[in-house]
């Protein structure tokens, strides 16, 4: 089998064509010149995957294209979901958009009804000519039809500018397709290649569809050109292939080349690997679920299989939302080419990669150290059995000396940093350490992937494949507690082999809006039949007979009022309702008995069976095999280094010399022409006809005792991953068991580990306003209770004076005991949807006293010796808040109890995992490395502060900023250059206000730790160490240290932003960002009239603005900043759920402050209400503009306006100010203009300015399935 580098332009134009040429030479026995076109007469089928689309997307090298969208939404892709991609990146670099130009068409439709209406009334569609029904059955109001003559002129202008590829995405086109079809028809007539959003994936969410349509318009022409170029190597060109040429799609199905599109090609390569391991390794009779690890050159692709392929339908690749069916594959930045670094006393693997060119150091092209070099130096690879395709001329073997040379240089650096008092590390110890860190880097997301869906990692078997899979399997399995590793016969080329096993698939999906509780079975059956006829027709045209076509049926379901959808495969009894309930219970740990189950989409996969089907099960083969020890080998034993014993004589065995049933006891290296498999000591390999099984044979020896006096950099890195993994697993449990939307869907929570004194060790996810605050809550409880707590006790707190942020954020705190002593703490803070008070949602815009904001709990033992105190919860959440005038107890007590139990379970899970870690490594070691990780962060901050001291020549750093009410925040920072410590003095800050803008002291600490982490240029563990160099001086009674009875709900969302602006101003880091969250609420109902509660709804959102410019960057437009990163609802979902029409959500052009680097622009959000509602706005920077820095001009102030239609028909424009509440009638608008960011540098010095949109650099994940979605949601709060 030919083995070629994927890119080698000096030796061949295209690797797949060259492979086919060499295969044909072998088959025909005739030399075929590279210049000769290949004949297809002896080719039965060519099945391929390609990274052409993926690379074009990641590298931004696609086709010039334009986007056509609804008026008011030209910035739909720029704003997206308004969250910034990286929380701690002040420059907020986004990748360039795929389109070059946007054209707005003056058309508009909306949904006539709204799902949250508690008293829906029947509507006569025939009585109003503006009404019609959409594909989903929803009633559509056509507000404006497009003027087609105007559209023609717009298309002509695009044509004259050279555009030939268009994307069309209009609001609500997933259900009302007519306007897109009209515009598409005109565009096609003019000669454009057109990507139409509702045809590509007819699912709700305009942001996702617009991204997907633009991605298709951007990628499909590139894909087509590649196909034509590939065809040039064959007689007759691409058209000569007919149905012989099949391409793998992202969903795991093949399609003919002429049906292959860029949008569905993004996971073309890794999808083959998933099909490969699922078809070759899963046994339906055994039923053991599998975790697949495809370890390639730059990364590892992780997936899970339990009898059916798992798909996701919306992912983000290189900051582009792709709405299309894709296998649930998750990329981890660790592969054979992942680079190795020593930073801040820690071993770091990736995410940077050596790539295929120049590749690792051993490729002899001047590349850096990588994982492959570590394996080679340790003797785990066999260079003499690798093809000679390395070096400048692609004709040399792997070079172990090149690897050893760079490891020797690294060893000198590491040993010098460790000092003379510690034993020197050999290059073998260093290389083995990096492999251990790499294995742990892969294990951490696997734990999250499985645990977040209610599965235990240890109950899976591990399938290893890819170029580096055979070398890392035992290390990963050992860390995960997995007892069996399966390596398929073609493990190194399983992605390619998987394509030979795959079937041709046609996906058909349509949106709907069905209540499964109603009698809709016949309607669903008819829709399935229609879709199956469509799929069968497509496959029949490709030569498939009806006997070779099968169908898979799915419904995309959710509970009414929830956005969490589950794609449910049709069960044998065809009871989709029962299947949905069972799957919801499995994944989330609960069901909602009183909620209707809604179906949003009907989906059919039409499958033309065409792949290889006679594959032996590894489990069946193992059971019937005659197991015998393998004796002897034609190769001499090799010295291989293993952590612990060092060098061991290791058997080297060629796989084709072993018969099925032979067993090889480790240590051993098994190899053939395509793979190298390491069997570590303590494991036994069983060779079968088509697999190698590696099972744990003897328990591993306990690790050598670690020196508690000196830090081992390998253990430091591994422990960092372990601590973060525990926090992430806590988060998985909380999300899985919780019931409220805030926690389950918005992930408005944080889980964390703390040292015995309450110092932060690891925190996940990172919600900025929780970062420094939670340790205050833990310390308060630790000091309050002392040694009186016992195992089984859990504490609850939310009060600002006890380390809380604002009252809805409730914190459960659990002491972790070992031998009767508290050795760690775990805590989970979560935002509860309601905890009582004067307003539904417990975030009143005009609260003056804290009791108006709901339940106040300084310390409550919610669980005592394992017994949950439900009566106490009712007292604190319902009885006590309701005693105050004008206030009520919680309106969601059942949800509160369920979510608190989820938080308790999360904390107990963390405590259990800590105990497991202590049992494995000893308490002394675990706590030593806990302190060491905090020390790593501390040293990084101290070094940074020393650098800042030199930059400012030792001068004190001072700043002042004001709230719109006139309250001032004053700060003076003094840095000690000797220690690297600093004093943050907030003396002269204004007294607390009679309002709700008071910020608890814990919020101040969150702002400090956020800024310090953001100023660091390197990635460090985020923990209490960041604050250890800082002393904060803060007089009592200020707006940042209010009294216990002060209202604080606005301090958490707005004053927190002013805190960060003030600190950044003192450091002269950047211009001010928008400085507010722009909190908007609207709704009605909730109050009681004549003793009867009025049913209604409530809605809350925060709105993005402009980011401040900095010394080397332009401020980003339309993005959330600093202490929040909340995603905003898609217009199509909001209009379906609530009585609103969002006429505009766009960039507020020109609102960013001028400067050498201009501040980012804010947003314009124009919302019309279609019924009477209560509206409240809580915002800042309406009176005081966001400052500019170093001569830069301030950003524009925000403006809140009410377009009010009076009863006599007069329309008035009313300025609402920064904070207000009012009743708006049907036809009224609220228009929110959010602030811009401050500029940086003098406006007349505009040379060498930075770009807002970056060129792709480093590793960008191609496969972002469920796991990436989980992490992204963690960062959007």
Brief overview, please?
The chain is of the alpha+beta class. Mean pLDDT is 87; it is low at 1255-1260.
Strand content: 15-25%
* Sheet/helix structural class: alpha+beta
How would you describe the oligomerization state of the chains in this entry? single chain
* Number of DSSP E strands: 57
Whole-Å distance between the termini?
A: 51 Å
Number of helices: 26
Q: Numbering strands along the chain, what is their spatial order in the largest sheet?
A: 18-13-12-21-22-34-33-30-27
Give the uncertain stretches in residue-range form.
1255-1260
Domain Acetophenone carboxylase-like C-terminal: 520-697
GO molecular function: 5-oxoprolinase (ATP-hydrolyzing) activity
Family: Belongs to the oxoprolinase family.
Domain Hydantoinase B/oxoprolinase: 712-1243
Question: Can you put this structure into words, describing what you see?
Answer:
- The chain has 26 helices and 57 strands.
- The longest helix is centred in the C-terminal third of the chain and has 29 residues, at 893-921.
- The radius of gyration is 31 Å and the shape is globular.
- It has a nine-stranded mixed beta sheet, with helices on both faces.
- Among the domains are: 1-36; 43-107 and 145-242, Rossmann fold (3-Layer(aba) Sandwich), CATH 3.40.50; 503-608, Dna Ligase, domain 1 (2-Layer Sandwich), CATH 3.30.1490; 1073-1246, no CATH class.
- With 1277 residues, it is α+β, with helices and mostly antiparallel strands.
- Mean pLDDT is 87; it is low at 1255-1260.
- Helix 4 (148-160) crosses helix 5 and helix 8 (268-281) packs across helix 13 (494-501).
């Amino acid at each position: 089998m030919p083995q070629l580098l994927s890119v080698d332009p000096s030796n061949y134009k295209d690797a797949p064509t060259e492979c086919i040429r060499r295969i044909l030479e072998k088959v025909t026995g005739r030399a075929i010149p590279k210049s000769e076109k290949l004949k297809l007469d002896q080719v039965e089928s060519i099945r391929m995957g390609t990274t052409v689309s993926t690379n074009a997307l990641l590298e931004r090298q696609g086709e010039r294209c334009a986007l056509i969208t609804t008026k008011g939404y030209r910035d739909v892709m720029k704003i997206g979901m308004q969250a910034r991609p990286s929380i701690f990146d002040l420059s907020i670099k986004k990748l360039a958009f795929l389109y070059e130009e946007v054209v707005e068409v003056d058309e508009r439709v909306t949904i006539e009804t709204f799902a949250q209406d508690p008293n829906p009334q029947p509507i006569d569609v025939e009585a109003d000519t503006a009404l019609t029904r959409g594909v989903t059955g929803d009633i559509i109001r056509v507000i404006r039809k497009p003027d087609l003559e105007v559209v023609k002129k717009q298309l002509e202008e695009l044509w004259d500018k050279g555009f030939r590829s268009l994307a069309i995405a209009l609001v609500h086109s997933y259900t009302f397709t007519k306007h897109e079809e009209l515009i598409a028809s005109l565009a096609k007539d003019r000669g454009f290649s057109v990507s139409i959003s509702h045809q590509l994936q007819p699912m709700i969410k305009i942001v996702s569809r617009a991204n997907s349509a633009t991605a298709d318009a951007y990628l499909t022409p590139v894909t087509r050109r590649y196909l034509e170029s590939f065809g040039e190597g064959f007689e007759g060109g691409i058209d000569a292939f007919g149905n012989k040429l099949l391409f793998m799609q992202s969903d795991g199905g093949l399609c003919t080349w002429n049906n292959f599109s860029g949008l569905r090609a993004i996971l073309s390569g890794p999808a083959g690997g998933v099909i490969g391991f699922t078809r070759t390794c899963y046994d339906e009779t055994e039923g053991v679920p599998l975790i697949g690890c495809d370890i390639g050159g730059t990364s590892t692709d992780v997936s899970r299989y339990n009898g059916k392929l798992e798909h996701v339908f919306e992912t983000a690749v290189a900051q582009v939302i792709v709405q299309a069916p894709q296998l649930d594959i998750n990329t981890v930045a660790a592969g054979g080419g992942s680079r190795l670094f020593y930073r801040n006393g820690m071993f770091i693997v990736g995410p940077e990669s050596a790539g295929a060119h120049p590749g690792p150091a051993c490729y002899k092209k001047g590349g850096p150290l990588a994982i492959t070099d570590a394996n080679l130096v340790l003797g785990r690879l066999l260079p003499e059995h690798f093809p000679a395709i390395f070096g400048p001329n692609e004709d040399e073997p792997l070079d172990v000396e090149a690897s050893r040379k760079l490891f020797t240089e690294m060893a000198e650096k590491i040993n010098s940093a460790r000092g003379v008092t510690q034993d020197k590390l050999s290059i073998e110890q260093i290389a083995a350490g990096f492999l251990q860190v790499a294995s742990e880097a892969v294990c951490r997301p696997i734990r999250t992937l499985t645990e977040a869906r209610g599965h235990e990692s240890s109950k899976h078997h591990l399938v290893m494949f890819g170029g580096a899979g055979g070398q890392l399997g035992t290390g990963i399995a050992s860390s995960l507690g997995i007892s069996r590793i399966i390596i398929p016969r073609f493990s190194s080329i399983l992605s390619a082999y998987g394509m030979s096993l795959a079937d041709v698939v046609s996906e058909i999906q349509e949106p709907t809006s069905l209540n499964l509780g109603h009698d809709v079975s016949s309607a669903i059956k008819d829709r399935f039949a229609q879709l199956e006829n469509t799929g069968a027709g497509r496959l029949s045209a490709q030569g498939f007979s009806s006997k070779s076509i099968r169908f898979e049926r799915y419904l995309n379901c959710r509970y009414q009022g929830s956005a969490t959808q589950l794609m449910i495969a049709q069960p044998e009894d065809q009871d989709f309702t029962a299947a949905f309930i069972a799957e919801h219970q499995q994944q989330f740990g609960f069901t909602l008995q009183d909620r209707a189950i809604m179906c949003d989409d009907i989906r059919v996969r039409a499958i033309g069976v065409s792949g290889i089907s006679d594959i032996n099960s590894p489990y069946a083969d193992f059971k019937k095999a005659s197991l015998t020890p393998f004796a002897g080998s034609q190769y001499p034993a090799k010295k291989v280094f293993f952590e612990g014993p060092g060098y061991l004589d290791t058997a080297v065995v060629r796989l084709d010399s072993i018969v099925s049933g032979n067993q090889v006891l480790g240590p051993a290296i098994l190899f053939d022409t395509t793979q190298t498999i390491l069997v570590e000591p303590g494991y036994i390999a069983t060779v079968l006809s088509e697999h190698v099984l590696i099972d744990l044979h003897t328990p591993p020896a306990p690790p050598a005792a670690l020196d508690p006096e000196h830090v081992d950099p390998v253990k430091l890195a591994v422990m960092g991953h372990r601590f973060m993994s525990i926090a992430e697993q806590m988060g998985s449990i909380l999300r899985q068991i919780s019931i409220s939307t805030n926690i389950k869907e918005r992930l408005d929570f944080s889980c964390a580990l703390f040292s015995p004194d309450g110092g932060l060790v690891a925190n996940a996810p990172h919600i900025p306003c929780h970062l420094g605050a939670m340790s205050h809550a833990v310390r308060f409880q630790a000091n309050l209770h002392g040694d009186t707590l016992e195992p089984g006790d859990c504490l609850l707190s939310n009060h600002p004076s006890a380390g809380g942020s604002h009252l809805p954020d409730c914190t459960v705190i659990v002491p972790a005991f070992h031998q009767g002593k508290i050795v760690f703490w775990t805590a989970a803070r979560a935002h509860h949807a309601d905890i009582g008070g004067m307003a539904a949602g417990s975030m009143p815009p005009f609260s003056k006293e804290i009791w108006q904001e709901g339940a106040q709990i300084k310390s409550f033992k919610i669980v005592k010796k394992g017994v949950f105190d439900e009566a106490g919860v009712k007292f604190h959440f319902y009885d006590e808040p309701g005693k105050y005038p004008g206030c009520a107890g919680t309106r969601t007590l059942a949800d509160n109890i369920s979510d608190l139990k989820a938080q308790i379970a999360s904390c107990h899970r963390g405590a259990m995992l800590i105990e497991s870690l202590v049992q494995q490594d000893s308490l002394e070691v675990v706590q030593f490395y806990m302190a060491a990780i905090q020390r790593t962060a501390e040293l990084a901050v101290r070094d940074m502060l020393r650098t800042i001291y030199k930059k400012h020549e030792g001068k004190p750093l001072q700043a002042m900023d004001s709230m719109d009410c006139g309250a001032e925040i004053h700060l003076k920072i003094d840095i000690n250059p000797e220690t690297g410590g600093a004093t943050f003095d907030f003396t002269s800050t204004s007294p607390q206000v009679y309002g709700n803008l008071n910020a608890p002291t814990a919020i101040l600490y969150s702002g400090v730790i956020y800024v310090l982490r953001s100023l660091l240029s390197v990635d460090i563990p985020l923990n209490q160490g960041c604050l250890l160099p800082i002393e904060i001086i803060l007089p009592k009674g200020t707006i940042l240290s209010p009294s216990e009875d002060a209202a604080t709900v606005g301090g958490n969302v707005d004053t927190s932003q002013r805190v960060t602006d003030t600190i950044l101003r003192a450091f002269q880091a950047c211009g001010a960002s928008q400085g507010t969250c722009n909190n908007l609420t609207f709704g009605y109902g909730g109050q009681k009239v004549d003793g009867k509660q009025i049913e209604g709804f409530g809605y809350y959102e925060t709105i993005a603005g402009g980011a401040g410019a900095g010394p080397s960057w332009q401020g980003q437009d339309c993005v959330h900043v600093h202490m929040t990163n909340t995603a905003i609802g898609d217009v199509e979902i909001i209009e379906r759920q609530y009585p609103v029409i969002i006429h505009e959500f766009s960039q507020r052009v020109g609102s960013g402050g001028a400067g050498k680097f201009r501040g980012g622009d804010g947003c314009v959000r124009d919302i019309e209400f279609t019924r009477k509602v209560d509206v409240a706005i809580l915002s800042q920077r309406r009176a005081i503009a966001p400052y500019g820095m170093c001569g830069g001009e301030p950003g524009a102030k925000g403006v809140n306006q009410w377009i009010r239609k009076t009863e006599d028909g007069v329309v008035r424009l009313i300025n609402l100010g920064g904070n207000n509440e009012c009743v708006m009638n049907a036809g009224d608008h609220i228009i929110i203009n959010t602030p811009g960011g401050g500029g940086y540098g003098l406006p007349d010095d505009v040379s060498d300015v930075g770009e807002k949109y970056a060129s792709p650099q480093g590793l960008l994940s191609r496969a972002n399935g469920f796991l990436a979605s989980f992490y992204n949601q963690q960062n959007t709060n």
